[in-house]
Amino acid sequence: MKVGGLFDLTGPTSDVGRDYAAGALAAVDYINKNGGIDGDKLKLIPNDYAYRIPEAVKLYKRYRSVEKVFAIQGWGTGDTNALRTFVNRDKCVFMSGSYDGALGNPKKTPYNFFVGTPYSETIRLALLFAQKKGAKKVAFIYPDHPYGRNPIKAGKEFAEKLGLTVGPDEIVPLKAIDATSQLLHLKKFDPDFAWIGNSTASAAVILKDAAKLGLRTKFLVNCYGMDRNLFKLTGGACVGRAFGMMPLAPMGAEVPDMPKVMAAAKGEPYTHNFIKSWVSMMVMAEGLKRAKKAGELNGPGLKKAMETLKDFDTGGLTAPLTYSPTDHRPNTKLAIFKVNEKGKMVPVESVSLPRKEEYLGY
Questions:
Q1: 68, 331, 337, 359: least CB-packed within 10 angstroms?
Q2: pLDDT tens-digit map of 6-24
Q3: What are the DSSP calls for 76-108, one per residue?
Q4: How far are the Cα atoms of 14, 66, 167, 266, 281 from residue 174, in angstroms, in the given order?
Q5: CA 36, 3, 8 angle in degrees (round to 5)?
Q6: Cβ 125 vs Cβ 353: under 8 Å
Q7: Residue 87: CB partners within 8 Å, gap ≥ 6?
């Protein structure tokens, strides 16, 4: 039973993409050692598309025409959205590492699924947290990529609802090695909190430069921008300055399924991005088992099976996941973490929003 794999091992998000790819492969190994898909072995066919949309499209076509897959584990926001037309046409279930809110509306993206809190819900939860902490002014920092841009509209609209004043956007590339000019602009506005929609490497640059320039601003960091490497990358500048939005447990957290994950990691110092793809693969495997049992082991059958998952327990690695024929958002809750003086990620609080239809699809 073949599954395609689109990963970024060498491109601009490879700082988080490599661990994600490793988690997917480890999950398949675990699944096969524990009975497979009711006796059938899974085969994940991984390829590095280096965050290049044309390469992702080329690989997708190969998976469909040569490997004959009806399920794919994908990665980025830009490529996942670029493939939507193909995925819908071919009725191929596509589980992405992107949690773009646009992928959560099955009226438009019926074959797209993901396991993390949508980015748009994440940004709303981050702003709600900021308001509770007394924030009056906020700003948004992000790369000029779909991953960075797409949730900003939701963030600004929600900030307005909360009565927050929004400052000018600051664009920091994923491969940035300096953010001094952007942070000097930010310092003039002097927000209480600023959103960081980058991945870990460039988020670290932002936090280091914020410390260097003496900003009082605290930072709300998207789920791919904060992990166990952040303390080292920032030289400790993240301590007391950054709050990470975490839809999944960090490595080593005391939750029921963590021993399985840690054993599969085989001592490698992976970040929680390993867990993201582990859960994605486990959820797909559960869908495949249900589709097989129903005698519908194909794209439409897998989609239908996935939409029967209700409050699905991931062993504490995420909040329970629910998909339905009308809503592919897995949940609307997450935990907020910070990094302590010892470099360990520690929980601050859990936050949630009602599953509102008005927020479906963005």
A1: 68
A2: 999 999 999 999 999 999 9
A3: -HHHHHHTHHHHHHHT-EEE-S---GGGG-TTT
A4: 10, 33, 21, 29, 26
A5: 120
A6: yes
A7: 72, 93, 94, 109, 111, 112
- Alpha-carbon distance of 193 to 170, in angstroms, equals 13
pLDDT tens digits for 149-169? 999 999 999 999 999 999 999
**Sheet with 112-113: strands ordered across:** 43-48, 2-7, 71-73, 93-95, 112-113
Q: Which residues of the chain have pLDDT under 70?
A: none
Domain ranges across the chain: 2-117+252-331, 119-246+334-359
CB-count exposure of residue 59 (10 Å: 0-12, 13-18, 19+): buried
Extract the tokens encoding 83.
């493939």
Q: What letter represents residue 122's amino acid? A: T
pTM of the model: 0.97
**Can you tell me the distance from the alpha carbon of 311 to that of 308, in angstroms, rounded to the nearest whole number?**
10
**Beta strand 112-113 pairing with 137-142:** unpaired
DSSP class of residue 65? Answer: I
pLDDT for residue 309: 99
CATH number of the structural domain 2-117+252-331: 3.40.50.2300
Determine the Cα–Cα distance for residues 335 and 354; give it in Å rounded to an integer: 15
Please give the distance of CA 76 from its chain centroid, rounded to a whole number. Answer: 9
Using CB atoms within 10 Å of the CB of residue 38, give its burial: 0 to 12 exposed, 13 to 18 middle, 19+ buried: exposed
Q: What Å distances lie between residue 61 and 51, 256, 293, 355, CA to CA?
A: 16, 38, 28, 35
In contact, 226 and 203? CB cutoff 8 Å: yes
Q: What is the CATH number of domain 119-246+334-359?
A: 3.40.50.2300
> 41 — phi, psi (to 5°)?
-80, 145
Helix (H, G, I), strand (E, B) or coil at 288: helix
Q: What distance in Å separates the CA atoms of residue 38 and residue 256, rounded to the nearest whole number?
A: 23
